[in-house]
Amino acid sequence: MNVLSLFDGMSCGRIALERAGIQVTNYFASEIDKHAIKVAMHNYPDTQQLGDVTKWREWNLPKIDLLIGGSPCQGFSFAGKQLAFDDPRSKLFFEFVECLKHFKPKHFLLENVRMKKEHLQVITDMLGVEPIRINSNLVSAQNRDRYYWTNIPDVNRPIDRGVYLKDIIQTDLPEHEAKNYIVPFDKTLRILDKEVERGKVGWFRQDSQANRVYYIHGKAVTLCGDSGGGAAKMGQYLFGCITPDRVEKGQNGQRFSSGDKFYTLTAQDKHGVLVEGYIRKLTPVECERLQTVPDNYTSCATDAQRYKMLGNGWTVDVVAHIFSGLSVAAGHAVLACGETVQSDR
Q: pLDDT digit string (tens) for 243-261?
C-alpha cells in the first residue's frame, strides 16, 4: 500500500497502520514542523518527506492507495475563535480535497474537531461521506472528541476499554526526574468538593483549563497542541489525595500536603492505586500513553516539543481501529477476483 499523509506531524498514521497490521510499501509525509519531522524520521527512517502541502502539484508520486490527514483545526474548534474557513490554517482543508481529487486514492481518512453544524456540513459535502464521531476515551484515558470522515468500510465506534488516568501513570520515575514535573504549591488552590465525582478537584489562581486539577481516577482533558513547554494549557495536573470511594476522607488528617515529596503510588484501595503527596503535571510519557503512542516515541525531542506534537497528534488506537477496515476491504477485493465468488459490496 502506498500511503500519502498530509499534515503528518510525527506520523501517528504510520503507527496506526502498523498496529492494524497493514503493510506499507511507501509512506509519503507532508509536514513542515522540523521537530515533528525529526521524531517521525527517528522512528520511521524510510518515510519520504514531501514538505509543504501547498506544493503538492510539484510532487511526482506513484499510485496512492490511501490518503490520510488531520488538517489544522484551530479555526473550527469550539475552544478557539471559530473563524472556520476564514482562518488560514483551516483553509488547508481544501488542500486535502484537491489532493483527494488529483491522486484518486482508493481510500481516505480525514480527522477534525467538533465544530458548528454548518462547517461540519461543508466538509461532509465536499468529501461525500458522513463522519463518524468517536471520543478517544473509549480506548484511552483522555477525553478527545473527534470527527472522522472515511470511505473505509465497516467503521464503527470501538468498545470501551475502561482506561483511566490511574492506568497510565508512570510509577518508576526517579525522584530527580519527578521533580521536573512538580506544580508549585500556592495558597490560591481552591477545592471543589461538589465536583469530585466528575474528576475535577479545583484550580489554582482561576478556573481555566490551564489551572485545573484532576483526580487520577477519571479521564484526562483533551491534549492541546499550543500547550507550550510546561504543558500548562492542557490542564495536565494530577491529584490523587483521595480515592473514589473515600471522597469525604482525608489522609493523615489533611487533603493536601505541603511537604517536599512527590506523590507516591501505593495499593490501599480496591482500585489498586492511590497517589499521595504533591500535585504534578503529566509527564511526556504519560501524554504518549493518553494518545496510545508507544512509550518514548517522542523522546528525541525536547519536553516542550513533545507536549506540543502529542497535543496535535492522533489517538493512535482510534485510527488503528478505523484502519482495521482496510483488511476487510482487501478481503472483499480478493473475493471479487474469483470466478464463482462475488464480493458483497
A: 334 434 443 333 333 322 2
Q: At what angle do helices 34-43 and 303-312 cross, to 10 degrees?
A: 90
Cell of 84: 472556520
User: Count of CB atoms within 10 A of residue 93's CB?
Assistant: 26
Q: Around Cβ 325, how many Cβ atoms within 10 Å?
A: 19
User: What is the amino acid identity at position 107?
Assistant: H
Q: Are 252 and 176 in contact (CB under 8 A)?
A: no
Mean pLDDT of 72-82: 54
**Is residue 73 flagged as an active site residue?**
yes
- Summarised one tens digit per residue, pLDDT across range 167-208 is 888 877 887 887 777 665 556 767 666 555 456 667 777 777
For residue 276, give every residue at least 6 positions away whose Cβ sits within 8 Å of its Cβ, in sequence order, or none. 240, 241, 251, 257, 263, 264, 266
- Over residues 25-47, the pLDDT tens digits come to 999 999 999 999 999 999 999 99
How far apart, in whole angstroms, are the C-alpha atoms of residue 323 and residue 328?
9
CA triple 18-102-129, angle to 5 deg: 65
Catalytic one of 12, 73, 224, 287:
73
User: Beta-carbon neighbour count of residue 62 at 10 Å?
Assistant: 11
Is the pLDDT at 227 greater than 50, yes or no? no
Residue type, 202: G
The answer, as to whether pTM is greater than 0.85, is: no
The three grid cell numbers given for residue 118, joined into one nine-digit string: 454548518
CA dist 14 and 45 (Å) reads: 12
| 237 pLDDT more than 60 | no
What size, in residues, is the chain?
345
- The Cα 302–Cα 300 span in angstroms is 7
CA distance 191 to 239: 11
Strands annotated E in 179-308? 190-191, 200-203, 212-215, 237-239, 264-266, 274-276, 280-281
